[in-house]
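Readers of this paper often ask what the protein records in our data store actually look like. This encoding replaces a full spatial description with a residue-level series of whole-number codes. For reference, a complete record is included directly beneath this paragraph.
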Amino acid sequence: MATVVAVANQKGGVAKTTTVHTLAEAFSERGRAVLMIDLDPQACLTYATDSEPESLGVTIHDVFLGRAGITEVLLKKDGPDLIPSSIDLTGSEIHLLTKTGREFVLKRALGEIKDDYDIVLIDCGPSLGILTINALTAADTVLIPFQAETMSDRGVGQLLETIEDVRHYTNKDLTVLGGIATMYDSRTNLGKRVLAEVREVHGINVIKPPVPRSVRVAEAPGAGVSVLRYARRSRSAQAYLELAETIEGML
């Protein structure tokens, strides 16, 4: 049965999608059966895996509306498989607000395919709405990418408050695997200070190594591949490979 990891931070621009995509590729290379779930209406992960949301017949939105089973939405890939998203997912939140048990829709759907995978990575959108609550309810643990800058520290704190609420109401066994510092510049004192503050103030493990800032990471989604395929020798790709090895040992 898979370990389900929600990759979350309501602050945008902290490389959640890059982290999901690259770690998923790295886990797959290590022989793991991996599933990625795009739970962001912007569908960045879907685009990054060279899929066009507009051309797909069904997406995770249809699962939330009860119009399709998760196996109908599943895209088999050369590497990690994908449950895609689309802009229609914005309507799912409105639909779910009127439904009893709305926090458990993703968890129930995943039950159909969870045994087929070793690791499931959920790419959460930049909010703490009902979609993210679904991810946290379905997850075993949470991975928190954060940019090493001042406002990211505040975002981590808000997410941890939401995780605590989820533990009280829908998923008492939810854990925090740790944080990943992304777009890190080791030359600045700010980056080093934020890393220390996240550890000390919030008490979460910051998993090493931090991922250096790199234009290669930004270019990879446009090519429809992860940075492991686009620029494997880059410092960022090597950092993600190290992180995958470390995280695999923690799951």
Remarks:
- Strands lie at 3-7, 34-39, 81-83, 119-124, 141-147, 175-182.
